[in-house]
Write a structure and sequence with these properties.
alpha/beta; 5-stranded mixed β-sheet; globular; Nuo51_FMN-bd_sf; Nuop51_4Fe4S-bd; iron-sulfur; Formate dehydrogenase beta subunit; metal-binding
Length: about 525
């Protein structure tokens, strides 16, 4: 007799937004129904995504050999999977082997994303079983100064755009004198091709909560906010539940784990304005005002939310903190190269065969990401350009694909790593249209506070149109470069200051799309 009818078999079906969009709920329901028909005891666990989106919904079965993966699974595939004996890890057309042995996963260094796709996101027991809250317990046993020093020594830098050292921000807030301090997580994630923040919030929310709690203890803050765009309903719902569970179990709220320290956490929903990814515009939004950039100084670290000292970090920065406190600064710093310490979850999107999330230590090349992990373009045509760092990132040509993924190496060629998202284009792309899109995006999303961004982007669209139409092209190109210089040096924030990066990179590296081959060396 088949022992599957006697023992409960654990089957994992992701609850991540990507999997849900591809029918994961229907697949889970079909598995439960089919198991009932066949008298098989199945325990369905709704885990997070492993980040291999081309295989979603990815169904996993717990076996003696480890978790065995099948994907992409459609609900119509379910009866055939049962017939083939997938509950025992048997062969099938959708069989991907032992999940951990899939090359895409096996060749990663998953530190921040170690639990993502493995655990039930809302099971605190799961979180604790996989090194959860070890970092917080260690932090509670240290002085706040020592916690800040650990983050400084780790070399962790902002995982948003500017790559500013996280520990320096914390040290500034810790040293500020105030009756109230805040910790704010910027989870706006408005960059094109990015989804790592969403995956953390949906697939491992306790990690973010732990990271923010450690930050609060380090700087003396008692209140925190997670700023999430309204387009992330699943993330908001999961975070809200996780905060309630952590509070109930004593990991948040008053007297955290009996330490006498308090930290309360709330989710604040943004309306989806790209400019609110800028830290001061985000603070305005949290305060209930229109999202407009503030002039600096004063720095938010000294006068931030409601005028009080505030730690503002990108989600991945805060999510990287628990493992630093759990295993030590040196453990984290041993990954990466130069001043780019640790790992980054790179996100592959656009015209790419294997789109998904890849966490790697800094130092591999862009080409390795595109070919070894991405598998080349989805269309099968040559990759012509890659935009990294969101809609304000430079368009990189083939000649730059061997650049190491390192903050300084990218800065040296006028590019940026930013949030780690990359969008791939094959050789059918029109780079003049992409340059125009960048300018138009800035015109639409500008908060309007400064003239170079508000007016410059609108004029920029007009100038690019004239270049493409060959209306006094040499003069218009000169005007576009001058306009970009004004935007870079005169804008109040990175919105206007970085919009010229994609525009000029397209003009410099792909001049033929503008009808100007002679401009290639410009």
């Amino acid at each position: 007799m088949n022992t599957q009818t006697l023992d409960t078999i654990t089957v994992y079906v992701p609850r991540d937004s990507t999997a849900l969009a591809l029918g994961a709920n229907d697949v889970a329901a079909a598995i439960a129904t089919e198991a009932g028909k066949r008298g098989v005891k199945v325990k369905l666990v709704r885990n997070g995504s492993r980040g291999m989106f081309w295989l979603e919904p990815l169904v996993e079965v717990a076996t003696d050999a480890g978790r065995v993966a099948y994907g992409p699974v459609d609900m119509s595939d379910v009866p055939g999977l049962f017939d083939a004996g997938f509950l025992a890890g048997a062969a099938h057309a959708l069989h991907q082997g032992v999940t951990e042995d899939i090359a895409y996963l096996k060749n990663q260094e998953r530190l921040t994303f170690a639990r993502v796709g493995v655990t039930d996101p809302l099971s605190l027991d799961d979180y604790l079983a996989y090194e959860g809250y070890v970092g917080l317990k260690n932090a509670l046993a240290m002085t706040p100064e020592s916690v800040v020093q650990q983050v400084l020594d780790s070399g962790l830098r902002g995982r948003g755009g500017a790559a500013f050292p996280t520990g320096i921000k914390w040290k500034t807030v810790a040293g500020a004198k105030a009756s109230q301090k805040y910790v704010v997580c910027n989870a706006d994630e408005g960059d094109s091709g990015t989804f790592s923040d969403r995956m953390v919030m949906e697939d491992d929310p306790f990690m973010l909560i732990e990271g923010m709690t450690i930050a609060a203890i380090a700087v003396g803050a008692t209140e925190g906010y997670i700023y999430v765009r309204s387009e992330y309903p699943h993330a908001i719902a999961t975070l809200t539940q996780a905060i309630a569970i952590a509070t109930e179990k004593g990991y948040l709220g008053d007297n955290i784990l009996g330490s006498g320290k308090s930290f309360r956490l709330e989710v604040r929903k943004g309306a989806g304005a790209y400019i609110c990814g800028e830290e001061t515009a985000m603070l305005e939004s949290i305060e209930g005002k229109r999202g407009v950039v503030r002039a600096k100084p004063p720095l938010p670290a000294l006068e931030g939310l409601f005028g009080k000292p505030t730690v503002i970090n990108n989600l991945i920065s805060l999510a990287s903190v628990p493992i630093i406190l759990a295993r030590g600064a040196q453990f984290y710093k041993d990954y990466g190269v130069g001043r780019s310490a640790g790992t980054l979850p790179f996100q592959l999107a656009g015209n790419i065969k294997h789109g998904g999330l890849v966490e790697k230590a800094f130092g591999l090349t862009l080409r390795q990401l595109l070919e070894d992990f991405g598998g080349g373009s989805e269309s099968g045509r040559p990759i012509r350009a890659v935009q990294m760092g969101g809609p304000l990132g430079a368009y990189m040509p083939q000649s730059q694909f061997d650049t190491p993924l390192d903050y300084e190496a990218f800065a040296a060629i006028g590019a940026m790593i930013g949030h780690g998202g990359l969008v791939v284009f094959d050789d059918t792309v029109d780079m003049a249209r992409q340059a125009r899109y960048a300018m138009e995006f800035c015109a639409v999303e500008s908060c309007g506070k400064c003239t170079p961004c508000r007016i410059g982007s609108t004029r920029g669209v007009e100038v690019i149109d004239k270049i493409v139409a060959n209306q006094d092209r040499p003069q218009q190109i000169h005007l576009l470069r001058s306009l970009c210089d004004t935007m870079v040096n005169g804008s109040l924030c990175a919105m206007g200051g970085m919009t010229p990066f994609p525009v000029l990179s397209a003009l410099n590296h792909f001049p033929e799309d503008f009808g100007t081959p002679s401009e290639k060396a410009a």
